[in-house]
Amino acid sequence: MRAQIAAANWKMNLTLKQGEELLDAIISQPTQLQSHQSAVFAIPFPYLTMAQQKLSGKYQYFVAAQNCHNKKSGAYTGETSVEMLQSLGVNYVVLGHSERREYFLESNQFLAEKLDICLANGMHPIFCCGEPLQIREANTQNEFVAKQLEESLYHLSADEVQKVVIAYEPIWAIGTGKTASSAQAQEMHASIRSSLAGKYGDEVAAKISILYGGSVKAANAVELFAQPDVDGGLVGGASLLADEFVAIIKALK
Ligand code: 13P
Predict the structure, then answer these.
(1) How far is CA 61 from the centre of its chain?
(2) How far is CA 199 from the centre of its chain?
(3) Contacts with 106 (C-beta within 8 Å, 6 or more apart), sequence order
(4) Cα(75)–Cα(213) distance, rounded to whole angstroms?
(5) What angle do CA 164, 158, 231 make, to 5 degrees?
(6) Maximum distance among all alpha carbons in the chain?
(7) What distance in Å separates the CA atoms of residue 44 and residue 48, rounded to the nearest whole number?
């Protein structure tokens, strides 16, 4: 079975102490993950080492960064390289979140460069895509997301693209409490998989995990994750609550 992933995105929330308490509360609860399932925690940079230490012995629990730079090293004040993350043992990174696209002007082309440096160094990217409300209202969301994939991903080889996890996050559903319905999520995920199949063939497309993000919570995770092309979730607000996120992990197929 394709990898099924519950990914927490803490965004810019919590103090160190609050982060420690949250992880302690999560890892104290058994989830019995199988080998095709994982829980990934995208943690603010200053707490990565703490999280890495807490999760190190926990089967199928991994730490991710929320961003990385597109250059190897050098005079880029305030930035964090892939090499730095890997020196902490962090092997996952979220790329192209809509908040980074909006507030930090990250373009599809810039994200293509970040994907390249990650893949060249064995880092697992979780690549975010998704449309704003006006695109959904115009019913052109499939084309909009396909263009994001084309411009950031489709220069990759078939071997490389299989190492990318895609997270579909409709912007109108992020932090709004307004979740895409399970039918809307399935429709877009099938459209993403069909775009991938058009470029790389069915066999490669079938191997790529596509997560849904946007107001995922314990109450809707089971139905969303039950969709055939939904391979887990990327979770913001509900990942800051231990019981909610544990229930979301348990909702993985
Ligand atoms: P919410 O779950 O708070 O809607 O955030 C989704 C998200 O942006 C995860 O990356």
Answers:
(1) 14
(2) 22
(3) 96, 100
(4) 34
(5) 40
(6) 48
(7) 7
Atom number of ligand 1 nearest to Cα 217: 2
Q: How far is Cα 164 from Cα 207, in angstroms, rounded to an integer? A: 10
- Integer Cα distance of 135 and 144 in angstroms: 8
Ligand 1 centre and the CA of 236: distance in Å? Answer: 3
Report the C-alpha gap between 179 and 166 in whole angstroms.
Answer: 18
Confidence at residue 91, expressed as pLDDT on a 0 to 100 scale: 96
Share of the chain above pLDDT 70, in %: 100
Q: Where are the domains of the chain?
A: 4-250
User: Among 11, 7, 41, which residue's Cα sits nearest to residue 168?
Assistant: 7
How much of the chain exceeds pLDDT 90, in percent?
A: 96
Spacing, Cα 237 to ligand 1 middle (Å): 6
CA dist 96 and 128 (Å) reads 5
State the DSSP string of 84-116.
HHHHTT--EEEE--HHHHHHS---HHHHHHHHH
pLDDT of residue 177: 81
Which residue minimizes the CA distance to atom 1 of ligand 1? 236
Q: Active site includes 169?
A: yes
Clarify whether 97 is annotated catalytic: yes
Residue with structure tokens 């919590």? Answer: 14
pTM of the predicted protein model = 0.97
> What does CATH list as the number for 4-250?
3.20.20.70
Beta partners for 62? 40
